């Protein structure tokens, strides 16, 4: 990628999507300070409950007779809550969500005109998801998940989208209904979901666009609060970024829903849903989707802990075998043990460096190249372990041997005392099925600047992907750090004992 492209990416990630200042038109937002004074109000209150927003702004909610039903709901200023079927005005009953953020109380009201499909059995869904053995039926689990979200939401097309370590992502399961487009196996570049959006999606796990063509309803502020833009991070009704709305239109999508899947607080993936026509969802359906998302996140946590636990057990055994050789470094390290260390990380090569003496096994760069790589690694940032799966894109000289080595995992990081472990993975040649050409998003504006725009075509674009190895798993990265740290401790301990003996 070029510097211009990098700059355009950064620019994309600076859009303050949580401060967009408007909501979607299927509900109302009221923002109160902790004294119940209305600091911000969406401009559509007249339409939903016959009250002019300017009559509300700056007033205490206690003094607005039509809003009295809200009083008991907002007494508690500490916990988020949902309430159903509250009558306000004489047109609608509302479902109400209350959230608290930054000394403000956010009240979202959506008319309960949308019926929840009560045929759907949420209890059996949860039981089913809990009972699948994920180690042996991994793909069944995600297929079923896509199917259940389809049934809960009624969306045409539901997909399970998994992020890579570099934040590109791939559709790993899907359920299509009334649609012929399939994105199964398609890859999307990281720039489709920029960093600030991913960050927001780790905090707030669901977002929903009912209609990409609907009016954006501005949020008005009371005079004293005109310089404070309400933070919509936790607001369901938030208008989504216009850049993203354009993306959805380009894809032929009118309504969109996405639910975050987190693994130990890191965004693991999304459940993404498309509908070809506008689609209103009931609050209960949204809550059910959120519940299923949370359940899956819990499963992902457990899976990672288990992966790590099993790796941890293997390291302890292996370290026991290795440590006798650390005492007698002149004897070298048997290949069999190096091979086991390599195997631990499903790597293709390994270098064990003990006080600057290198021991290696498997696919490893030639020694001059290896030393240059180690020099470069010394200059890299990282606090525990270093991992990459596209070495030659970061370290130019590695282009010469990218078939042999494209992935590097190192621990502990940064290196001390010339003692560390490097694991290598060879290039993993494969065809990438992109949904549209990923580079077709880069435009030069008239003023000479560069920016990214959403792609206009999502038809399959196949590319060979040289210079990439299979990505390291978070559990492997963690284990690399532990293994390296244990090694370093042992070496330093032996070093100290030897020094004491000499003195
Ligand atoms: C947000 N981009 C998103 C979201 C998804 C995607 C799921 C979350 C919002 C939502 O639920 O709709 C992308 N949607 C996908 C992908 C699939 C899908 C990968 O269905 C695959 C199946 N987008 C661009 C470019 C930019 C960009 C070039 O293509 C920036 C210049 C920005 N995407 C962008 C922004 C958001 C976004 C700013 C945040 C929207 C918001 O939450 O306000």
Automatic annotation (TrEMBL):
It comes from Deefgea piscis. Transmembrane segments: none annotated. The lineage of its organism: Bacteria, Pseudomonadati, Pseudomonadota, Betaproteobacteria, Neisseriales. Residues 29-60 form the PAS domain. This is EAL domain-containing protein. Residues 137-298 form the Phytochrome chromophore attachment site domain.
């Amino acid at each position: 990628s070029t510097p211009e492209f990098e700059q355009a990416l950064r620019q994309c990630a600076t859009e303050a999507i949580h401060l967009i200042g408007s909501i979607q038109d299927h509900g109302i937002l009221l923002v109160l300070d902790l004294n119940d004074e209305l600091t911000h109000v969406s401009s559509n209150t007249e339409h939903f409950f016959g009250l002019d927003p300017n009559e509300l702004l700056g007033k205490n909610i206690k003094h607005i007779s039509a809003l009295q039903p809200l009083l008991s709901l907002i007494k508690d200023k500490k916990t988020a809550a949902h309430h159903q079927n509250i009558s306000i005005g004489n047109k609608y009953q509302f479902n109400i969500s209350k959230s608290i953020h930054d000394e403000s109380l956010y009240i979202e009201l959506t008319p309960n005109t949308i019926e929840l499909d009560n045929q759907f059995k949420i209890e059996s869904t949860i039981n089913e998801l809990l009972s699948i053995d994920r180690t042996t039926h991994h793909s069944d689990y995600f297929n079923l998940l896509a199917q259940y979200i389809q049934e809960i939401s009624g969306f045409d097309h539901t997909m399970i989208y998994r992020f890579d370590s570099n934040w590109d992502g791939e559709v790993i399961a899907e359920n299509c209904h009334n649609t012929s487009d399939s994105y199964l196996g398609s890859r999307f570049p990281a720039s489709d979901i920029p960093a600030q959006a991913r960050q927001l999606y780790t905090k707030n796990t669901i977002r929903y666009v009912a209609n990409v063509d609907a009016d954006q309803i501005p949020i008005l502020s009371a005079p004293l609060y005109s310089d404070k833009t309400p933070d919509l991070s936790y607001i369901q009704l938030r208008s989504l970024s216009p850049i993203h709305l354009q993306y959805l239109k380009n894809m032929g999508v009118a309504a969109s829903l996405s639910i975050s899947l987190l693994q130990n607080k890191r965004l693991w993936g999304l459940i993404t849903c498309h509908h070809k026509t506008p689609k209103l969802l009931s609050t209960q359906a949204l809550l059910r989707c959120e519940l299923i998302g949370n359940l899956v996140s819990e499963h992902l946590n457990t899976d990672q802990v288990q992966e790590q636990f099993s790796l941890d057990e293997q390291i302890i055994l292996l370290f026991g075998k290795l440590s006798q050789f650390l005492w007698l470094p002149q004897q070298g390290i048997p290949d069999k043990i190096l091979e086991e260390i390599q195997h631990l990380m499903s790597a293709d090569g390994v270098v064990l460096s003990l006080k600057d003496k290198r021991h290696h096994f498997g696919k490893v760069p030639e020694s001059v190249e290896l030393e240059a790589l180690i020099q470069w690694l010394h200059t890299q940032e990282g606090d525990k372990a270093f991992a990459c799966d596209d070495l030659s894109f970061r370290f130019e000289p590695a282009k010469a041997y990218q078939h042999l080595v494209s992935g590097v995992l190192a621990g502990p990081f940064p290196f001390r005392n010339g003692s560390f472990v490097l694991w290598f993975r060879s290039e993993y040649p494969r065809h990438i099925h992109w949904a549209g050409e990923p580079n077709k998003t880069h435009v030069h504006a008239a003023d000479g600047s560069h920016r990214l725009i959403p792609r206009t075509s999502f038809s399959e674009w196949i590319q060979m992907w040289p210079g990439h190895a299979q990505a390291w798993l978070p559990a492997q990265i963690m284990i690399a750090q532990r293994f390296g740290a244990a090694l370093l401790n042992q070496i330093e301990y032996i070093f100290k004992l030897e020094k004491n003996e000499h003195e």
